[in-house]
Amino acid sequence: MHAAIPSTLMYRSVCSIPGIFFSVRVWALGLGLFLAAAVPLLSPFGSLTYPADPTAFFDFTEIEAASFIENGLNAAIPDPTQPVSNGEQAAPLFGMDTVPLFGGDLFEKWSHALVEITRELEALKRCRTSETCPADAQRLIDLSAEGAGRNDRARVGLINRAVDLAITPTSDEAQWGTPDHWSAPFETLRSGRGDCEDYAIVKYLALLEAGISKDDIKIVVLKNVFPNEDHAVLAVRVDGEWLILDNRTLTLVRDMDLTRAIPEFVLDQEGVRRFVSGSRNHRAAS
Fold this sequence. Notes:
C8orf32 fold, seven-stranded antiparallel beta sheet
């Protein structure tokens, strides 16, 4: 890693396995309730306070994937010839500014992933003009075809669900014997296993294949507050708002409603960018 690059760029995949994550949350909830009752009795300072930086705990409103799909089925399919408004195009993820980053572990991993995504997009293109299609490519095409003919919101929800069900959550240590291995989409579908960034990369390619603009698809690296870990998700812009697709739940969450997580990096066709701390509050105040 280049010496000038912050140590936070040494991204390590520590994605939670859903079942384990749920169990920890339940245990922590019980402990939290106990402490909430005990601390006021023991501490002379009274109730506990939250961190001064509100970006650490965003307001949270979950919207079930089923609701997105149901609403989408009843909505009119937008006319693709109609331009998107400038306001929709300009909406930044989490309302935050970003700055470009070059070099470092995360940059290298994403650069390699982009090469693989480009190569596999070419393979998908050949499938449409050839009678033969590799099994891995056909599997990706089938996933991207989920929700075909629906509006973008329903289509995203259906593809998200299909990919989540197609992959079994498995750590890189268990599958590859290494702390962090970023698989190409076809490789993930071939093994049927992967961790958070593997889910996100497959969804990235599946949505591109489904016709979603590359400008409306990004991978986001978050720092979860509890448990304290890095986690990769996919962000998709639909109808002017960003939706977060997380492999640990079928729930789709708007970016501004995300809680217990701090956005750190965004990955897309342009490379890697880092979110600027505090820019969300500045934008809200403006």
